[in-house]
Amino acid sequence: MPTPAAEEALARDRPLLERSGTAERVAEILRQRITEGVFPPGSRLSEPSISAALGISRNTLRESFQLLAHERLAVHELNRGVFVRELSAQDISDLYVMRRVTECGALRRAAELSTVDLSGVVDAVRQGRAAAAEGDWQAVGTASIAFHQALGDLAGSERISTTMRQVLAETRLFFVLAENTRAFFEPFLDRHERIVRDLERGRFGPAETALEKYLRDAEKQLLAAYDRR
């Protein structure tokens, strides 16, 4: 069942549906809330609570659940309902294969472009540092997701950006393993900054190398956290 905080968050999203109450828009809202950790892995997505909070029909919500299931973010359990998906060690490894191919490929594509807008990656680093200064490690995790989305966006391809949004939403399901700790997230802030410095200097090759190592190390850490749980 959604917590009162989750219901309040969805109620704030209700105005977003005033012009469009489609299942796709509902799925986008739920995907964002899953990415933010409002709905953690294993939590039940209650039809009555969510449909009431968003002011939508059960049929529209069920269609959005089907979209989330297709994106591997939700699962339907017979006679129990719909739940945010819990991932396996194999899911972690497979998703990081996908991330290395997509994100590193995005940097290679960006290197071919005449101009690249780095404002997204720069802003994400600033958000991460500001959240760390407040000791808000969940927000640091959210900034990290924004950083990697911005890296994917550098390719200038809507399909790559869309793929990254789906992949990163699924990645966020892993962050529950890290328990939003400083020990897990803080080292990645330095890596973000090093990658940005290389990109600002036009050093796309070193940035890609650093990114690939970053992703391999993150995969190892998450697998270790998974084993401990």
UniProtKB/TrEMBL annotation:
<dbReference type="GO" id="GO:0003700">
    <property type="term" value="F:DNA-binding transcription factor activity"/>
</dbReference>
<feature type="domain" description="HTH gntR-type">
    <location>
        <begin position="20"/>
        <end position="87"/>
    </location>
</feature>
<dbReference type="InterPro" id="IPR036388">
    <property type="entry name" value="WH-like_DNA-bd_sf"/>
</dbReference>
<dbReference type="InterPro" id="IPR008920">
    <property type="entry name" value="TF_FadR/GntR_C"/>
</dbReference>
<keyword id="KW-0804">Transcription</keyword>
<dbReference type="InterPro" id="IPR000524">
    <property type="entry name" value="Tscrpt_reg_HTH_GntR"/>
</dbReference>
<dbReference type="GO" id="GO:0003677">
    <property type="term" value="F:DNA binding"/>
</dbReference>
<dbReference type="InterPro" id="IPR011711">
    <property type="entry name" value="GntR_C"/>
</dbReference>
<dbReference type="Pfam" id="PF07729">
    <property type="entry name" value="FCD"/>
</dbReference>
<protein>
    <submittedName>
        <fullName>GntR family transcriptional regulator</fullName>
    </submittedName>
</protein>
<keyword id="KW-0805">Transcription regulation</keyword>
<dbReference type="InterPro" id="IPR036390">
    <property type="entry name" value="WH_DNA-bd_sf"/>
</dbReference>
<keyword id="KW-0238">DNA-binding</keyword>
<dbReference type="Pfam" id="PF00392">
    <property type="entry name" value="GntR"/>
</dbReference>
